[in-house]
Amino acid sequence: MVVKIAAIVLAAGGGSRMGANKPLIEIGGQPMVVTAAEAALAAGLGPVLVVTGFGAERVEAALPPGVAAVRNPGWALGLASSLATGIAALPLEADGAVILLADMPRIGEAELRRLIAAFRPGAIVVPVQGGRQGNPKLFARAFFPEILALRGDHGAKAVVAAHLDQVVEIEMDDAIFADVDTPEDVAASRMKAPFPALTPGCHPLDNAAMAQMPGLVSDAMAAFDTGGRGNVRRGLHGAARRADDAFDAARATIARFLGAAPGEVVISAGCTAALNLAAGALGADLAAGDEVVLSQLDHHANLLPWLALAKEKGLVVKWLPVTAAGRLDLAALPGLIGPRTRVVAMTMASNVTGAVTDLPTVAAAAHRFGAVVVADAAQWAPHGPFDAAATGADLLAFSGHKCFGPTGIGVLWGRRALLERLPPVALGGGMVAEIEGNDFTVLAPPARFEAGTPPLTQAIGLAAALEWMTGLDWPALHARQRALTARLRDGLARLDGARAVGPSDIGIVSFTLAGCHPHDVAQVLADRGIAVRAGHHCAQPLAAALDLAEGSVRASLAPYNDGADIDALLAGVGEAIRMLR
Length: 581
What we know:
It is built from 18 helices and 25 strands. The protein is of the alpha/beta class. It has 3 domains: about 5-185, Spore Coat Polysaccharide Biosynthesis Protein SpsA, Chain A, CATH 3.90.550.10; about 205-210 and about 475-580, Alpha-Beta Complex (Aspartate Aminotransferase, domain 1), CATH 3.90.1150; about 265-450, Aspartate Aminotransferase, domain 2 (3-Layer(aba) Sandwich), CATH 3.40.640.10. Strands 1, 4, 5, 6, 7, 8, 9 and 10 form an 8-stranded mixed beta sheet that branches. Strands 12-18-17-16-15-13-14 form a 7-stranded mixed beta sheet, with helices on both faces. A 4-stranded antiparallel beta sheet has the order 21-22-25-24, covered by helices on one side.
C-alpha cells in the first residue's frame, strides 16, 4: 500500500520582534519559507501546504511551484488556528502530515525522509536529541481531529503529550531545535549559510587550527583551475596573462586587508613558511652574541626557526615569561631588551590562552634599540581586516586556512625598507634578475622572496576569503563572540573539575578537566559531532610554564558559531566527566 504523507508549513505569524515578516527573512540566499517548502517537495511529501496569515500576499508570492497556499484569516488568534487551517485543507487520502515551522532553515530533505521512514498508521513520529523533543513532527491521520480541536497558542505538542504510548522517537541532530526567533538567531543562521560543510549536527569548534571555507572560495579557485590555467610571469598567451592578472589582483586584495601596499606583501606556502622566511632572511645578518627575544606564549612556528639559528650562530635567546593568568609579563620586558637585541619575535594572540599581545608596547621597546619585530598574526588575522603597520611589527605573518581560505598559502607582510635590504632565502625562477657567469642579481621585493611557481590557485582563494571577511560587520561579530565566550566560560565554571586556561580575549577557550586526559575528552566530544583540539597545541614552553603536562582541550570560535555549538560542547563535557571519572 502506498502511504501518502502531506506537509503543512506554518508561516502565518508576524515575527514583528525582528521588524519583518519572519518567514520571508532570507537565510542562505532565499526566504526561510521557501527553504522549508522545497525541502518538503524534495522529500516526496504531498501536497505541500503553506499556511499564511500576516503579510499573506508577500509570502504567497514567494512560494515555489508545486506548493499551495492556505490563508488563515484568524492567524492572530494563535498557533492552533493555523494548525487547524492546514489540517482542514488536507485531502481525504492523506495518511499523515508533517508539520513544519517556516523558521527552521536547517531542516532539510534528509531530516524529513527520516521522519517518513519511521511512519506507521496510528503513530506520532517525533525527533529527539538527548531525550528532548524537537520539530518537525509527523502525525498519522488518527490525530487530525485532536489537532483541529486545539485552541489559542496550544501547539501540536499537546497532542503528543496526550499520546506518549503512541509516539515513535527517532534520534536526530540539533537542527530540530534550530528555529529562528530573534535577530541573533538570524545573524547566526546567515553566517552558517555560505559554508557547505556546516551541516546539521556538526559543531566546528576547532577554528584556531582550521577554519571552514565558504563556497565562494572554492568556486573562485575552481573557476581558475577549470577555465584554462596558465603560469605567472612572462607568459604571452591568454591563459598566462589571465594568471598574471589574477595573481596581481589577489596580492592587491591581501594588501587592502592589511591596510598595506601590494609591494609589501610576500605570498608564501603558509604562516610557518613565512616565519621561517623571516628568520632565514634576518638570520643572514646575525652573529654570535646577538640577542633574540622570544616569548613563552608563542607557537612553535615562531620559536623553532630562532632556536635553530641560535644553535647555528651562537645567538643569545632571552625569554619573555607568561603570568599565571596566561598573559605575557610585559613588566619583564625592559630587562630583556638592550643594545645587543636584534630581533623580538612575538605572537599577536595566543593559540592556547586566547591572550592578545600589546604589540605596540613590545615594538616600542624593541625599536628603541633598533631591533626588528616579527609578529605571528595567525590567530589575529581571522578576526577581521587590520592595519599591519599600526601593530608596530616590522614583519608579520598569517595563514590562509585560518582565515576561511585554502591550505598551502600564507602571507609575510614587511615594511618596504626592511624587505629591500633582506636577502632571499629560496632561490630559483621568478626571483632572479640576471645571471652573469658565477654571479647573479635578484629582483626587488616581493618577487625576491617568491622563487618558483607561487601558490597561484590558493592566492585566488585567499583573496576571495579576505574579500568576504572585509564585507562582514566585525563590531557586531566581535560582540557576539564575546557573549559566546562568556557563555562557554560560565558553563565550564559550573562543571565539577573544569578549569579554563587563560583570558580568552579572542574566542579561544582552553580548559582542563580534573581526572580526565585532554585527548580522552576530545574523543568523547568528537563522537558527539563536536570538533575541538587537545594536547599542547604546538606550544610546549607555554604548557610547561602553566604546568599543563598533559596539555588542554581547546575550543575556538569563528563567526559562524552560535549558542547551539556552545550548548552542545557543554553537554559533551558533562558527558565526558560522567564517562571518564
